[in-house]
Design goal:
The protein has 16 helices and 13 strands. With 387 residues, the protein is α/β, with parallel strands linked by helices. About 4% of the residues have low confidence.
Length: 387
């Protein structure tokens, strides 16, 4: 199988990791690095991304599988219009909710409530739910209209790989029809299992943003007088450092230092306000035997409780979080949850080998049509994949 990787940035990271792949790079920067005036148009419909993908698809008569991972930051919905012009099989891995939700989070960033509106319905369009402004929401709506205008027939045929099975309830019911789950492989936070009941460190690891719940965590820590280690970058880093002077808030750290600190963790906190699709870092903590305290909005909340791998608090409720933190004073409880987390961590995500095998099976499982238009159900010998 030939593999070509189309990326929006300079592609150096992909070239380093996958030297045998053909890398085609636009050399542009993502929205998170700052918004420019031209981005208002380019990030709605990036004509260079369209032309690049259209050219790649036109350059070969081999059967092609196109696997889309991320497009919102640089590539834009224009790539779906290029895909709709060609007879290719399109697979999209849903790492977020941008396939259907204009703000990508299925969350009202003003109220902190999970959004129950049908995406792009009148209620959705009138809701001021964006993290920046209603004007920005309207721009996002315009981009969603661009995305949808690739055509109903196109979107009906797109296959969606979910990072967590509970994502389907937020993505189904519209133009998308085909779903399957393949969780992202991950590795333990630490080199070996942690005897959490012997430790005393409360640990947070993630982006310092409102939707990740760091303000809720800060309120819970200040209200209870507790300490914690909060590792991560983001727009709220300085604010959190200022409001939690009694905690260790170093910013981002090297993996070796994260390993050292996690080895001394009693429990891990994932306080996300949004319906966190998976929560890789929480899975990594459980794989290390570190029990977790997760928000009720996290899609893994039910399985955490069901497998005695941690505790669940009411999303956005600092008092509820403080209560769960206080419960972790019990060595008996922490030991039970630590052991439960470690056992569940063995099966929470596929190994790298299993993930690769499953992904190849997904590629091979498609139904291709021969030159007469008849479906063959057989993967052709000459095939390429574009990521």
């Amino acid at each position: 199988m030939n593999c070509t990787v189309l990326v929006g940035d300079d592609g150096e990271g992909v070239r380093t990791r996958f030297p045998e792949a053909t890398v085609v790079a636009l050399g542009e920067r993502p929205l998170r690095d700052g918004v420019r005036v031209r981005d208002v148009i380019d990030r709605n419909y990036n004509i260079r991304a369209y032309a690049m993908l259209d050219g790649l698809l036109s350059a070969s008569d081999e059967e092609t599988v196109v696997h889309v991972h991320g497009w919102s930051q640089i590539l834009s919905p224009s790539i779906f219009h290029a895909l709709a012009r060609h007879r290719v099989r399109v697979i999209v891995t849903a790492h977020d909710f941008f396939l259907t939700c204009p703000n990508g989070g299925r969350l009202n960033f003003r109220t902190g409530e999970v959004c129950e509106y049908e995406p792009m319905s009148p209620s959705c369009l009138s809701s001021n739910c964006d993290k920046r402004s209603y004007l920005h929401k309207l721009w996002r709506v315009g981009r969603m209209l661009t995305q949808r205008s690739a055509g109903e027939a196109f979107w009906n045929g797109v296959e969606v790989i979910l990072a967590h099975e509970n994502m389907e309830k937020h993505l189904g019911g519209g133009l998308l029809r085909h779903f399957q789950t393949l969780r992202t492989p991950c590795k333990p936070l630490t080199a070996g299992p942690v005897r959490a009941w012997h430790n005393d460190r409360a640990l947070f690891l993630g982006r310092m943003t409102w939707e990740k719940g760091v303000r809720t965590l800060a309120e819970a820590l200040n209200g209870s007088g507790r300490t914690a280690t909060l590792i991560g970058r983001g727009p709220l880093l300085e604010e959190i450092q200022n409001v939690l002077p009694h905690c260790y808030v170093p910013g981002w750290l090297e993996d070796s230092e994260v390993d050292r600190l996690a080895s001394g963790a009693r429990f891990f906190i994932m306080p996300s306000r949004m319906p966190e699709p998976y929560g890789l870092v929480a899975a990594e903590a459980m794989m290390s035997g570190i029990p977790v305290i997760v928000s009720s909005n996290a899609l893994i909340a039910d399985e955490v409780a069901r497998n005695s791998a941690g505790l669940v608090f009411e999303s956005g409720n600092a008092a509820s979080l403080a209560e769960k933190i206080a419960m972790m004073d019990s060595a008996t409880l922490v030991r039970r949850l630590s052991e439960g987390a470690y056992e569940y961590g063995k099966r929470i995500a596929p190994s790298d080998d299993e993930w690769r095998r499953r992904l190849i099976e997904i590629y091979q499982g498609g139904v291709f049509a021969d030159e007469t238009g008849e479906e063959t159900g057989v993967m052709p010998e000459a095939m390429r994949a574009i990521h």
